[in-house]
Amino acid sequence: MDNGRHPRAGTSDEAVAVLRRGGLVILPTETVYGLAADAANPTAVAAIYAAKGRPSFNPLIAHVTGLEAAERFARLDERGLRLAQAFWPGPLTLVAPIHAPEAVCDLARAGLDTVAVRAPGHPLARAVLEGFGGPVVAPSANRSGRPSPTTFADAMDETGFAAQAALDGGPCAVGLESTVVAVLDGPVRLLRPGAVTRAQIEALVGPLAEADGDAERSPGRLALHYAPNAPVRLRAEGAKAGEVFLGFGPSHADDGLNLSPVGDTREAAANLFAYLRAADRRRPVAIAVASIPDHELGEAINDRLNRAAGFVG
Ligand code: TXA
Ligand code: MG
Questions:
Q1: Exposed, middle or buried, 122 (CB in 10 Å: 0-12/13-18/19+)?
Q2: Atom of ligand 1 nearest to the CA of 192
Q3: Contact (CB, 8 A) for 39 and 45
Q4: Can you tell me the distance from the alpha carbon of 127 to that of 179, in angstroms, rounded to the nearest whole number?
Q5: Which of 11, 180, 198, 280 has the greatest CB tally within 10 Å of its CB?
Q6: What residues pack around ion ligand 2 (CB closer than 5 A)?
């Protein structure tokens, strides 16, 4: 996929100009790097799907500067407003009915009458969104089924070939994708665990319902996702012959790669995808990963690990 004609790291003004003429941009956010396009331009959106090799029925997140911009096309009820006010800018995505369907084209929504929207916190992403003035769709910049890139170099390796501009925002602070919740009829439903925890959301809108099966959790989402090349073995006590071990917590502190020597799920989330890639580069027979507790960001980490191992989460 790599034709060697990657853009150099540029400025937010260059990125805005590229978006305006229907091009693609490697865009850093606080969660992971995205591959961004004008949400209203179906040709540009088609180029994203082509670059990722993504099934075209998997809809994209529209990124905006904040609540006012979101409400131009998404219908947020009282719970949606409360969540947006609490967590934006930040790693929470709301799925809500769309009332101005031309703002986020059919292809970007995969034909659904709902839209996923979030206001990212990264200053470079915000500069681009302010300069552009409309919603920008950006899936994680990995090719479909691969781990999300959390550094500029990883993003360029994955889909840099398809971009006409790229912004280097350094390593992503969160390192794990946004939490996705559906705020539609009935209770708020958790579609994808992520950087904002279940407990943080439930404190504002009460108990979350589970998604209505995998189809709703993420329409078109593949069970095998976020996968490195090597097979992944979960709940490992250590490495067997030929494996690379990803530890967690103080009992694994002396091993090569430890997601968080102090046992902090936030630190482990920030390291997860970069360490999976680093382990993969050693071409092991498998990547063995220690048990991660389910509390705090552990729910989202275990969701991604189960997918990397080929289990439906
Ligand atoms: O942190 C993130 O969310 C990153 C950064 C770049 O913002 N983006 C990201 O996008 O992870 P993507 O496309 O890799 O994941 C979007 C998720 C998918 O699981 C998709 O199925 C779901 O959001 N989604 C999008 N629109 C939806 C809709 N209308 N209904 C239900 N799920 C939707
Ligand atoms: Mg993704």
A1: buried
A2: 19
A3: yes
A4: 22
A5: 180
A6: 140
Name the burial class of residue 56, with classes exposed (0-12), middle (13-18) and buried (19+) by CB atoms within 10 angstroms of its CB. Answer: middle
Q: Ligand 1: which atom is nearest the Cα of residue 61?
A: 25
| Mean pLDDT, residues 243-261 | 90
Ligand nearest the Cα atom of residue 29: 1
Does ligand 1 come within 6 angstroms of the Cβ of 149?
no
CB 177 less than 6 A from any atom of ligand 1: yes
Diameter of the chain measured on Cα atoms = 56
Structure tokens at 104: 């986020």
- Compute CA distances 288 → 4, 119, 173, 230, whole Å: 33, 35, 25, 10
Residue 192 CA, ligand 1 centroid: distance in Å: 9
**pLDDT 10s digits, 103-152:** 999 888 877 889 999 999 999 999 999 999 999 999 999 998 889 999 99
* Contact in structure between 5 and 161 (CB atoms under 8 Å): yes
Please name the residue that has the structure tokens 């996929």. 1
Inter-residue contact 126 to 88 (CB < 8 Å): no
